[in-house]
Amino acid sequence: MKNQSRWNGDDRGFAFTRRAMLKGTLAGAGGLALSSLAGGFALPETSVRAAEDEMLPASKFTIKSTIAVNLTKHFATAPLFQGTFNGQPVWYVITEASDEGVASDLGLNFSPRLANAAAPSVQQVASSNSILGRGMVTFAGAPNFSPTRVVTAGPKGFPPAAFAPGANADAKYSDLVRVQGTTVVYNAPIVAVGAGPFDVTNHTNTHDRLIGIDTAKMTADLVMVRAFSHGKDILYHSFSASNPLAAPIERGTFVPLLGMVSPPSTRTTQAGARSSIFAFVNGQTGPMSPPAQGLNHVILDGGGTKDASLQNADVLEKLRIGGDAHNVLDSFPTLRDPALARLYSPLWDLQLVKWSDEAIARGANTAQMDANQIRQLAAQGVVHADDNLPLVTVDIIVNCPVIAFIDQAPDAPQAADPGTSSTLFRGAP
Predict the structure, then answer these.
(1) Which residues, in sequence order, are CB contacts of 268 under 8 Å at separation 6+?
(2) Rounded to the nearest 5 degrees, what angle is found at the Cα of 25, between the Cα atoms of 241 and 149?
(3) In terms of pLDDT, which residue wins out, 270 or 77?
(4) pLDDT value at position 35?
(5) Which of 16, 230, 307, 407 ranks highest by number of CB atoms within 10 Å?
(6) What's the structural domain count of the chain?
(7) Contact present, 5 and 420 (Cβ < 8 Å)
(8) 3-state SS assignment for residue 318
(9) Structural domain of residue 381, as residue ranges?
């Protein structure tokens, strides 16, 4: 009753306190392992497509510059770009731009919300060309890919018993990039460092999702994520997170600067740089989704404790058949309503969703595919936040650009928005 009384009033401070508490609970869910891999096992540059693999038609790509999407081995091939950091080569990809013309010219997702990213979260880079990727780029910071990624399953999968990011960004690095003297903000994550050879097995100098790199053809093969948006099956990249637990679960780089992107956004206007993503903590488990879904599912059923590589083919197979967390995205660039399409951002504001004990008892905790349907369940008391109170963001940002849709493009919300009642969604975008 004490908590309920706090929710009935206009208590925005309590919502932000809850975000801090939930974020702290998530960060403290397991012991932070600090092991690192000495040396590094180098593999030659490689392309990993086989003639018999099932490929997604390019007509279903949202990032039009994507070279290929391999459904059999669960990876997408992206154009690769070279830059430098401290005089050494770095290798990056580009997925979004905040300017519609630039996005169209480069074959990127258009994300106008990126222009709202707070200055500290955007890395200023020097380039010989005002358009990113058309000239050599000098980065201000870079990730360190040498640590060993650790995810040890807990008793229920999530939270893990131990964890550590497989890559850590330095104090000046952000995936968000602006060429000095220009206004366009790009999403341009670094995925490998050095002159090679590149370790795409243990990832001592590459991103934890990079399983193939060719610096002659300038291509990068990245293990993708299968998820849902507006009732449809979709695919996205996962590059980084602002939290040291979210990063290894997502097989991403821990990038603290992402936490400075902006305050939580609204879900009805273009204010802020974030959109909402829903991740379940106690959905059903098993190899297939649906019905399985959630962070517990990806750790237990998606090979979440092992590195992603061609050598770990069982991990790629588990992901292919449904082992991903199947998070739910609240925005997508293919929505019919232009105002809704312009709400798309690759920077996702994490909301942890927990099924009620009663819902679990009757087997109702099956995979959900639409953000508003989840909000409707929250309005009915069927789901809530991880602390058993109403839904609220946990102030953790994950950088996950959408790549494509599997069958049909997400085109509209599948349920009505129940609103932001003070008793249901205090502070939730």
Answers:
(1) none
(2) 45
(3) 77
(4) 32
(5) 230
(6) 1
(7) no
(8) helix
(9) 2-34+56-405
pLDDT at 17 over 80: no
pLDDT at 392: 83
* Residue 391: predicted pLDDT: 85
Amino acid at 269: T
The tens digit of pLDDT for each residue in 213-242 reads 999 999 999 999 999 999 999 999 999 999
Give whole-number Cα distances, 122 to 174, 276, 341, in Å: 6, 20, 23
Q: Helix H segments across 281-326?
A: 295-301, 313-318
Q: Please state, in angstroms and rounded to a whole number, the distance separating the CA atoms of residues 192 and 208.
A: 10
Concatenating the DSSP letter of every residue in 391-416 gives ----S-EEE--EEEESSS---S-SS-
Contact 67, 55 (CB under 8 A): no
- State the chain's maximal CA–CA distance in angstroms: 64
Helix ranges, 130-260 (H)? 246-249
What contacts 81, CB < 8 A, 6 or more positions away? 91, 92, 93, 94, 132, 133, 137, 188, 218
The whole-number pLDDT of residue 159 equals: 96
pLDDT of 165-213, one tens digit each?
A: 999 999 999 999 999 999 999 999 999 999 999 999 999 999 999 999 9
The answer to whether residue 177 is domain-embedded is yes
369 within some domain: yes
C-alpha–C-alpha distance, residues 250 and 225, integer Å: 9
Structure-block tokens of residue 391: 């839904």
Euclidean distance between CA atoms 20 and 111, whole angstroms: 27
Q: Which two tokens stand for residue 235?
A: 């695919």
pTM of the model: 0.90
Domain-embedded: residue 135: yes
Indicate whether 402 pLDDT > 50.
yes
Tokens coding 129: 């060309």
Residue 331 three-state SS? coil
User: What are 48's two structure tokens?
Assistant: 């990993």
**Residue 150 DSSP SS3:** strand
Angle at 301 between CA 297 and CA 302, to 5 degrees: 95
Instruction: Establish if 413 belongs to a structural domain.
Output: no
